[in-house]
Amino acid sequence: MLPGLEAAELPVDAVEVGRILDAWGIKGWFKVLPYSADPEALFSAKSWFLLPAEKGTKTFAGVGQLRIKEAKVHSDTVVACAQGIEDRNAADSLRGARIFIARSNFPSAKQDEYYWVDLIGLEVINREGVSLGHVRELLSTAAQTVLVIDQVQDGITVEFMVPFVAVYIDDVNLDARRILVDWQADY
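Above: the chain's sequence. Below: its structure in token form.
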């Protein structure tokens, strides 16, 4: 295992939130590409779990836990420093590593705000009680976020999209794993 990384197990509720791009400066800081426009989860978690890069050189194997000392916004990225990462070479050895954080460490969402990861897999039901399928993913468009829904019809998966805006979304119930919408399957 690399300096600064402790062998660990990936939490069952782990969510991939970014990857390490490169070393930043000479004192062990590194640059992170967050997968969210609002990387609060990176700032709230004191431990990040790393998996090696999917492509290219792998400088470690398995899951490593990194104890974060500080993380902050820098331009369109995040820069961070961690215990045991004391110089540029140590920081550079983390290049490409994928960053995971336990979902339980995410900051609480505000009223009527949701983490995308919490919406994936929810059943979408319209006002008439018809199931439109389950959320497979969310897309960010210039105008709004869109739910991508998969529905199985006669053994074939059909994809359709519903804008995730108040005019179409009546209710999101995370406990019941359901989204109530004003939408028809034939739109």
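The longest helix spans residues 40-44.
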